[in-house]
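Recap quiz, item 2
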Amino acid sequence: MNSKPVIQLRDLYKTYRSGEVEVHAVRGVSLDILKGEFVAIMGSSGSGKSTMMNMIGALDRPTGGQYLLDGVDVATLNRDALAKVRNEKIGFIFQGFNLLSRTTALENVEMPMLYNSRRIPAQERHVQAAKALNLVGLGSRSGHHPNQLSGGQQQRVAIARALVNQPTILLADEPTGNLDSQTSIEIMGVFQTLNDQGITIVMVTHELDVARFTKRMIVLRDGRVVTDEPVQPRSQADVELGKLKAAQEAVQLH
Amino acid sequence: MRLFASLKISARALRRNKMRSLLTMLGVIIGVGAVIASVSLTSGATKEVEDQVSSLGENVVNVFSGNFTRGGMRGGWGSAPTLTLADSAAIAQLPNVVAVTPEVRDREQVLANGQNWNTLVMGESPSYPQIRNWKMARGAMFSDDDVASLAKCAVIGQTVVDQLFPNQDPVGQTIRIRNLPFLVVGVLAPKGFNLFGQDQDDTVVVPYSSHMHRITTRRFVNDILVEASSSDTINDVQDEINELLLERHHTTDPDFTVRNQLELMDMVTKTSRTMSLLIAGVAAVSLVVGGIGIMNIMLVSVTERTREIGIRMAVGARAADILVQFLIEAVTLSAFGGAIGIGGGVAFSMTVSNFYGIPAYTPYLWIIIAFASSALIGIISGFYPAWKASQLDPIEALRYE
């Protein structure tokens, strides 16, 4: 596996000021994430994991420290440059899917390409979006609107959208938060497949079950890293899905 | 961001709230429609008047003799005997003068074909049809030789033809004026009513010499019509005529009046210009009101779609992309409203025109102005909401419920 770090955090700080009170959301996080890793960032609410996520996702800038994404110091970039980083280097997946309603799955997946600095002709946008949808197993649903899709399917559309610009990292914020357990496992299966193909994935979650599908677990508390260890033993989506189905049959759920 | 993609996104957003988009556009539609309708109707009226003015002839300078006052009664222009044929001849020598005709007018009973008809008998030179921009329907105008020989020949208008020679060719026939036989040599093309409601075709034109010596016995002419070489020289010609006549009449107090077509046109169009100004004011007010409506709805739309803005920003939309998207949406609203308004205004004025028989005419310039200003209103009123949208913090926007 390639050992080049795609994300380098050096003594990262984020301090919010709300009125007189200073809130230290992240206080001195240093870590490297290498290409091809599959990382879970865990922590209870208020642990600073969402703030971390926003900074890694170039939605927010740290107030102190250094964040190198693919060798570029994101902390020094202006708004437009951050937008370019988000467009080209990061693929976002959200808890609430965040698809544009009344827009087809295909158009949702095409959207990031509209904001590419390279002009992508409509024909190529269609082809790329269709390819990304096939990759997540939704090729036949490209003409459907989000409200015609199940939660799991919507999240697959969101994953396709995140993948379409071939980002350096996939960034998932509680991707299974709105899904039932079976669909959650299916989505984690998609992640594992993508990771096996060499895609770096960073995922925020508060569920240990979900984190077990990753390769490395980082736990935050009060804005600091308290645990950073490989996941052992690691769950495999197909195995877990088999177990779940067996359990469901046992109680005659189906 | 691609322009076409932005247009598509805007169109989709506007279609999503059809009723709201329509109501928002209504302000612009009504404003632009009202302006186009009133402009069409007033310019229709103005154009008709202008046509009538130019039917008097182009680049024409009128020289009237002064008014004749006796015992407090003022006779009006042309009533005082001050202008002579010599004046007319002198004017013809001035630079930039293309044609001149002295005019003498008289109402006479004209007989022909066992019919009779009271009509205006005018004494003119052969240049008269040229000056008045009047074509001959049949036959030809009499010549300078006819003037010199006091020929008893006449050119008659269509109304006189209808009255005296129904269903006949009058050319070659004879009419009698004061019992003198005049040979009809030509028929003037129908010209219709003039500015003052007079039937211009109800006339008989004879050589001025014949009029002044055979029909009447006059030494003075009512007025002189002068055609200048162009609209650029018309004012010079007018000034020169003034000087020349003052000199010839040995006076400093003019006993004549010189007017040109441009002045007449100005008088006529002055009211319509005031009207246009008023319309422009109303248009400005209604467009401002429409613009406020658009701004209001765009602000609502930005708030409603905060989450969408957040999503777009998260996947890489720059502030400028968001700004352009919302600006295009506002401009689409207002320009579309403007286009509907233009169509509605034209349709309305045409309906009114057909119904009441008044002319309507929509100048292209006003269509362009109306469309451009409605698009401009979209840009102006859409800018603040669009700017507000572009300045949203993506994290806050994504969290927005």
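The mean pLDDT of chain B is 87.
The radius of gyration of chain B is 33 Å.
End of item.
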